[in-house]
Specification:
Layout lengths: L1 H4 L7 E5 L5 H7 L3 E5 L5 H14 L4 E4 L11 H11 L3 E5 L10 H18 L11 E4 H6 L9 H11 L4 E5 L10 H22 L1 H30 L4 H30 L5
Parallel strand pairs: 1-2, 4-6
Antiparallel strand pairs: 3-5, 4-5
């Protein structure tokens, strides 16, 4: 991977995220600069370390590529060309532009669900929000400061791209899943990423995410409470289930509505952090 990347870039930088094998040694022997974490901190932390290093080096373009051999380094020029020729801030190598990717149906479905949620939360229109094969211009490198330590960093970066008004494009890439993880691990990983993606969606659109369901529950609680009161006054009948249901729905709706207002206010006050 490193030797195949070197012909296309000035230098290859590897973030060794607390590995216990010979990753750092082998990377150095292959010609890479190695940045090491004392302990495993997660994919997002590794990405943040690479952004910090690129800023310190005053890099004009930074390419991120996964170290598991899935991406093809020979396609690095495709991403660089999109930045230099079309003056784009961020370029994503998409597995879903064209028909070259032979991914399983469950993987395609999972990524498309996550991407749909990500697009809604970021107001972007990308086809592969979770691709780790990306290129960043100098402006993007300086503007993006990832804080998410896990896999949700991919969505966090897209949210920052949207908030800071950076331009974004995609180019088709091929990918190999040889030696990939099992379906079970992929599913659990996908669920984890989706949950974290929804977190960023709720930050970007708190009124829709919490406010609308909250208002609906408040209205439902009032209606159900009205039915209980009508039955009690006109029929002298007490439906305790209806009373309990109306109270629970009203209180839950009120909590969601207040949460929406608080998050909306905070999101506007601290928008630059996201």
């Amino acid at each position: 991977m490193i030797k195949k990347s070197l012909p296309h870039v000035d230098k290859v930088v590897v973030c060794d995220d607390g590995s216990t094998d010979n990753t750092a040694k082998l990377a150095k022997e292959s010609g890479a600069i190695v940045l090491s974490h004392n302990k495993n901190q997660g994919y997002g932390a590794a990405i943040a370390t690479l952004f910090d290093y690129a800023r310190k080096q005053n890099a004009q373009i930074m390419i991120t590529i996964d170290g598991d051999g899935q991406h093809d380094p020979s396609q690095i020029p495709l991403l660089i060309n999109a930045i230099t020729t079309h003056n784009v801030d961020v370029v994503i190598g998409s597995r879903f532009l064209g028909d070259s990717t032979k991914a399983s149906s469950y993987r395609k479905t999972g990524i498309k669900i996550i991407t749909s949620a990500s697009n809604y939360g970021t107001n972007l229109k990308v086809t592969d929000s979770q691709s780790g094969f990306r290129a960043y211009s100098k402006d993007a490198i300086n503007a993006i400061h990832p804080t998410e330590q896990g896999m949700a960093v991919s969505t966090e970066i897209l949210l920052k791209i949207s908030n800071k008004g950076l331009s974004i494009a995609e180019v088709p890439i091929t990918i190999s899943y040889k030696g990939d993880t099992s379906e079970q691990n992929s599913v659990s990983h996908g669920v984890s990423v989706l949950v974290n993606t929804l977190k960023y969606v709720s930050i970007k659109h708190p009124l829709q995410f919490y406010g609308i369901p909250g208002l609906g529950l408040v209205i439902a609680g009032i209606v159900l409470g009205g039915l209980f009161l009508d039955a009690y006054l006109n029929q002298q009948t007490v439906f305790y289930g209806s009373l309990l249901g109306s109270v629970v729905m009203f209180l839950l709706g009120a909590i969601l509505s207040v949460t929406a207002v608080i998050l909306f206010t905070m999101a506007n006050l601290f928008r630059d952090r996201y």
